[in-house]
Predict the structure.
Amino acid sequence: MRALSPPLPALPLSVASELLLPGSPPGRRASSPESPACETVRGFGQDVLFLLPPTQPLFTSTMSLDIQCEQLSDARWAELLPLLQQCQVVRLDDCGLTEARCSDISSALRVNPALTELSLRGNELGDAGVHCVLQGLQSPSCKIQKLSLQDCYLTGAGCGVLSSTLRSLPTLQELHLSDNLLGDAGLQLLCEGLLDPQCRLEKLQLEYCNLSAASCEPLASVLRAKPDFKELTVSNNNISEAGVRVLCQGLKDSPCQLEALKLEGCGITSDNCRDLCSIVASKASLRELALGSNKLGDVGLAELCPGLLHPSSSLRTLWIWECGITAKGCGDLCRVLRTKESLKELSLAGNELGDEGARLLCETLLEPGCQLESLWVKSCSFTAACCSHFSSVLTQNKCLLELQISNNRLGDAGVQELCQGLGQPGSVLRVLWLGDCDVSDRSCGSLAATLLANHSLRELDLSNNCLGDAGVLQLVESVRQPGCLLEQLVLYDIYWSAAMEGRLQALEEEKPSLRIIS
């Protein structure tokens, strides 16, 4: 066995299994000791498997500590502290941490020059606890780039210390403060720190922070002053029409190359859409615009579309879910889809488009100028009548990879139409969501046959449909075949017998590449 470098105290299984190396996603562990990417570590009383290339040092400064939703006992906490001093990425989300743990965290951070990301999301730290943690980041050797204090019970009173910290962390690029009641006064203090020349923040998340229109002028000042600013999230704050107007003016005056603007649930109306149109047209850097849960309506969408059609617009992602859009609005949007090959992701979920809106969208998806890859049309009042149009799209469109069509009354007849399209050799769809679509066991034969015939589909969601043992059995028999390439089958709120539960467990053991989520 290779010697440890740098040296660390022996780690028990519970700790060692949380260590992740670069390229290993959170929660993913080696599935088998025979895997060539694994190395077995002995000496902890049990074997521990890491996703580790054989040539990689066992412990390196680029390792991550990622623990979520675990109440940490004193003993467990003592085990983790040495890792806080050496890991590059530390995530302790929803771990029941309070102010009492913050002194330990602060001390560990002071001696960890490798740290680039710290997430303490969902812990009740309070202003005093956050203050203590921030003191640990004051070391001259600190190189932190990403800090998440989401839902940490920070208030406006704690923003003064945070503001001072921003002045002394020139490496910090991303700050998440969502779900803290900062209020307008706290936001004002925060912006004073953001305006400091030493602050080079690029991404700021302020969702659910109890902000009003009064916060928008300080934010606009930051946008004007910071040419490197790339992403602003102010969703779910009642900044209203007046606040959005101020933000838009700040963006018009700003040299920043903004890439993402998220204003969902902000009280925007159609009256703001002309300003937003101007932003989309003038900011060639803008890639993502999120306006969901605002009362734009067809009138607002019509005002926005000229900006989307502007030659300078390179928008990739547009979220306009629950915006009061109807089939009439689809006509304006379809002109954008035909023209802008840059647009790849679109959410229209929760808009009353109806079958006529579906027809217009599908006709556009069949045109060569439309390069959409992901379409969310959940809860759009579709019926089986529109499924022949979607079936044609699934057969002929070579770009669409994800279709979220859940919570529409498609029924067995509609799903069988979709299966006809999916079963054709030309289908390239990889992800299909059919949750809560009035699907019964009668559709499972068609779905099972499709899973064998289709070689592109990797994820299928059938949650909250009236399936029983008979239907699930047909799916199981199909999925277990070597020719079925499905990787994830989602069956939330589907009820089956104990015998069927055993079959599903056996299937996952038989086919490790498949995940059944229920």
